[in-house]
Amino acid sequence: MTRMFDLTGRVALVTGGNGGIGLGMAKGLAACGARVVITGRDTAKNAAAMAELGPQAAAFPADLLDPAAPPKLVADVLALAGRLDILVNNAGTNIRKRPELVTDEEWATVLNTNLTSLMRLTRAAYPALKESGRGRVINIGSMLSIFGVPFSPAYGASKGAVVQYTKSLASAWAADGITANAILPGWIDTALTRGARKDVPTLHDSVLARTPAKRWGDPSDFAGIAAFLASDAAAFITGTAIPVDGGFSTQG
Question: Which of 24, 25, 29, 165 has an alpha carbon 20 to 30 Å from 17's alpha carbon atom?
Answer without folding.
Answer: 165
